[in-house]
């Protein structure tokens, strides 16, 4: 019988999450995170779409997502996925970058996939130390050295230039969605605000942001839901506060994007001060 294991650990020293998914077949729809994701494929083969570009991932390939990079993935040839990653919040990444470079900025990594990367062994070692919940400074040393290499090899030197490819109308719509995500936003509203017809709005938004307006809204809701769950709120209350029509819709969409149910994710952060770990095994 197939065995699926999902493990999540929050490391309070490094202030980051470590995920390990073993034996999963789950398809992840187009979405984005408001944090950095640095991961690698242990086993399996996946089809990835990131920023409208397609990739085929194999064992030993490294994945790097910037905040707000839209991405979706699914298995290839029915192969199960073994995958590990660390998630780093922007404010934490900025502090690490300041430590390494002397400048506090948010890097923009240039490629979402590094094929057969020489950085994978270091990331694997760091990830395993986090999963083993070791408390010595070896893990911080590994993380700083890994990020130093990534800053040198995987992104342009120095603070990135501001992006100008998103028009004022689309930036305005993003701000509107981000400030009113808990409300019942309609396509008519977005059309009136932007002065763009609904059909052309959908095409323009998706082309510029790499994700449709409604998927953008639901992703904003999920990212906010994560913060509320981390604070100890109950999933039923989080569903209401983030604008989902009911708890079932919230639970289903949360698992589609995060790989865990809201209740599972909440347990990572609400086991008491000495523990921040979840391991779920399904036969």
Low-confidence runs = none
Query: What is the oligomer described by this structure?
Result: single chain
Mean pLDDT: 91
Helix and strand content put the structural class at alpha+beta
Number of helices: 10
| Residue share in β-strands | 15-25%
The CATH class name of the largest domain reads Mainly Beta
List the main descriptive attributes of the protein structure presented here.
283 residues, alpha+beta, Jelly Rolls, 7-stranded antiparallel beta sheet, 10 helices, 23% strand
Q: Can you walk me through this structure?
A:
This protein folds into 2 domains: 4-153, Jelly Rolls (Sandwich); 168-269, Orthogonal Bundle (Arc Repressor Mutant, subunit A), CATH 1.10.10.60. The protein has helices spanning 90-101, 120-131, 138-153, 168-179, 187-194, 198-209, 213-230, 235-241, 247-258, 262-269, and strands at 4-11, 16-24, 28-31, 36-43, 46-50, 53-57, 62-65, 71-75, 81-88, 113-114, 277-282. It contains 10 helices and 11 strands. It is globular and about 55 Å long. It has a 7-stranded antiparallel sheet, with helices on both faces. A 4-stranded antiparallel sheet has the order 3-8-5-6. The mean pLDDT is 91. Strand 5 and strand 6 form a beta hairpin. Helix content is 41%, strand content 23%.
């Amino acid at each position: 019988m197939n065995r699926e294991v999902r493990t999540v650990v929050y490391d309070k020293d490094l202030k980051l999450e470590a995920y390990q998914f073993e034996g999963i077949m789950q398809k992840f729809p187009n979405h984005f995170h408001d944090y950095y994701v640095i991961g690698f494929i242990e086993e399996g083969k996946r089809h990835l779409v990131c920023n409208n570009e397609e990739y085929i991932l194999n064992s030993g390939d490294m994945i790097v997502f910037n905040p707000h990079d839209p991405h979706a993935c699914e298995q290839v040839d029915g192969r199960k996925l073994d995958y590990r990653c660390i998630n780093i919040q922007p404010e934490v990444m900025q502090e690490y970058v300041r430590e390494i470079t002397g400048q506090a900025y948010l890097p923009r990594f240039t490629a979402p996939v590094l094929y057969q990367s020489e950085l994978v062994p270091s990331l694997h070692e760091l990830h395993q130390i986090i999963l083993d919940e070791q408390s010595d400074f070896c893990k911080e040393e590994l993380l700083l050295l890994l990020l130093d290499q990534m800053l040198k090899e995987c992104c342009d030197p120095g603070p990135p230039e501001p992006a100008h490819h998103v028009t004022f109308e689309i930036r305005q719509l993003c701000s509107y969605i981000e400030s009113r995500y808990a409300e019942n936003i309609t396509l008519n509203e977005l059309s009136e605000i932007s002065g763009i017809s609904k059909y052309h709005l959908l095409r323009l938004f998706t082309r510029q942001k790499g994700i449709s307006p409604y998927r953008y809204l639901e992703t904003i809701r999920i990212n906010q839901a994560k913060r509320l769950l981390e604070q100890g709120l109950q999933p039923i209350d989080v569903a209401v506060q983030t604008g989902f029509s009911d708890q079932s819709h919230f639970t289903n969409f949360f698992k589609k994007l995060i790989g865990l149910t809201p209740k599972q994710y909440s347990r990572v952060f609400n086991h008491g001060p000495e523990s921040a770990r979840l391991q779920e095994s399904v036969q």
